[in-house]
């Protein structure tokens, strides 16, 4: 016990460094169900996936994935069936950071869109992959 008390600083540094080593594993597991930007491009090109941006209208106007349709998250349950009528096509949900899109996947699946996925990292990851962004 005396060792722990005398060396509390070293022990806390060891625990902090161990936490930093484990953090990438935890972070990647949180985005496990999310698409990468390149995976989204392949899905759009090969399977004609529909991109739905769940950002608010002002965020959508500031920049969005080309060809994306805007359905704010707060209106998703009411408007999605009218915007994307075919529930069998892949659906890619996007927002600024990916947080709202992750929650939107659950709503879309509840509505019957079984191939709904979110873009991991959101529009930020799309821009970091140097993919085109439209403004309206």
Task: Please give a structural write-up.
- With 136 residues, the chain is of the alpha/beta class.
- The chain is built from 7 helices and 6 strands, in the order αααβαββαβαβαβ.
- The longest helix is centred in the N-terminal third of the chain and has 23 residues, at 8-30.
- The radius of gyration is 20 Å and the shape is elongated.
Dominant shape: elongated
Major sheet attributes: 4 strands, parallel
Can you write the helix and strand succession as a string?
HHHEHEEHEHEHE
Q: What's the overall average pLDDT, rounded?
A: 90
User: What's the helical proportion of residues?
Assistant: 40-55%
Low-confidence stretches are none
Number of strands: 6
Report how far the terminal alpha carbons are from each other: 65 Å
Rg: 20 Å
The chain-level structural class is alpha/beta
Strand order of the largest sheet: 3-1-4-5
**Proportion of residues in extended strands:** 5-15%
The number of helical elements comes to: 7
In short:
The chain is an alpha/beta fold and 136 residues long.
Q: Which keywords apply here?
A:
alpha/beta; 4-stranded parallel β-sheet; 6 strands; 136 residues
Topology:
Blueprint: H1 2-6, H2 8-30, H3 37-47, E1 50-53, H4 57-62, E2 64-65, E3 69-70, H5 76-83, E4 91-94, H6 99-110, E5 116-118, H7 122-128, E6 133-134
Parallel strand pairs: 1-3, 1-4, 4-5
Antiparallel strand pairs: 2-6
């Amino acid at each position: 016990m005396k060792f722990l008390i005398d060396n509390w600083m070293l022990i806390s540094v060891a625990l902090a460094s161990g936490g930093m080593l484990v953090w990438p594993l935890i972070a990647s597991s949180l985005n496990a169900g999310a698409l990468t930007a390149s995976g989204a491009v392949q899905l759009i090109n090969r399977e004609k996936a529909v991109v739905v941006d769940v950002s608010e209208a002002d965020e959508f106007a500031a920049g969005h994935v080309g060809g994306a349709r805007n359905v704010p998250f707060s209106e998703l349950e009411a408007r999605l069936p009218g915007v994307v009528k075919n529930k069998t096509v892949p659906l890619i949900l996007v927002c600024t950071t990916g947080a709202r899109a992750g929650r939107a996947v659950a709503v879309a699946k509840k509505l019957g869109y079984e191939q709904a996925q979110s873009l991991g990292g959101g529009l930020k990851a799309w821009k970091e992959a140097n993919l085109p962004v439209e403004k309206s």
